Amino acid sequence: MAQGEKVIVCDKLTKRFGDFIATNEITFEVNKGEIFGFLGANGAGKTTAMRMLCGLSTPSSGKASIAGFDVYTQTEQIKRNIGYMSQKFSLYENLTVKENIEFFGGIYGLTDQQIETKTEELLNRLGLKSEAKKLVGSLPLGWKQKLSFSVAILHEPKIVFLDEPTGGVDPVTRRQFWDLIYEAAERGITIFVTTHYMDEAEYCNRISIMVDGRIEVLDSPTNLKRSFGVSSMDEVFYQLARSAKRGD
């Protein structure tokens, strides 16, 4: 894919559960290598939308393509071209650091030689060489987080979906985690991230904020703060939440 190409395209994507509309005609595009923040209060429809984009849930209506593949008919191709990490991580705590890397390398279809090379590179980059034979369960939360993200992009996916990836860790570790995100984006990996930390929203190239299943605003952090006449994303979020309660 060429730089600047759209790797996520959504057009009126909708998910209904009976009479309840969880995700209501969301329309947006995400560029290759972009860090795209997908924000909203609990129950706004973020998780439902992400499940559709990852090929885990079939939309009720609308269109979407992920890395060039259709969310209705090409879900297996989508899964092969994305990475995923949640707040709960995806590592096996009863396996060692090295075993986890090797296991997921196999799941992602890498060859034995690729797994060996990438394992060595990853251990060196994260400074975990001396911890390679330690059980993941014994690592501090921040190290688990960095390792989980690095494993999620081990196969160099076109897009990585991060669902509240920094929950429960201290601010310094969160900032270090974002350094890893920037490095991945510079390599052309698109970052699609949900977070409830508004300071992290400032790190994104663009942000969408969902309210009651709809995308209420979508722009860069700088432009959003300017249009709302405020100095922080916290204040943008607060104003949107207040408007929603009033029914504006």
Automatic annotation (TrEMBL):
Predominant cellular place of this UniProt entry's protein: membrane
InterPro entries for this protein: AAA+_ATPase, ABC_transporter-like_ATP-bd, P-loop_NTPase
UniProt key word Membrane: yes
Subcellular location field: Membrane
Pfam families: ABC_tran (PF00005)
Keyword tRNA processing (UniProt): no
This protein's UniProt keywords: ATP-binding, Membrane, Nucleotide-binding, Transmembrane, Transmembrane helix, Transport
Membrane topology qualifier: Multi-pass membrane protein
Domain ABC transporter stretches: 8-237
Entry's Gene Ontology molecular function annotations: ATP binding; ATP hydrolysis activity
Cellular-component GO terms for this entry: membrane
PANTHER family per the UniProt record, alphabetical: ABC TRANSPORTER G FAMILY MEMBER 20 ISOFORM X1 (PTHR43038:SF3), ATP-BINDING CASSETTE, SUB-FAMILY H, MEMBER 1 (PTHR43038)
Protein name: ABC transporter ATP-binding protein
Organism annotation: Dyadobacter luticola
Phylogenetic placement of the source organism: Bacteria, Pseudomonadati, Bacteroidota, Cytophagia, Cytophagales
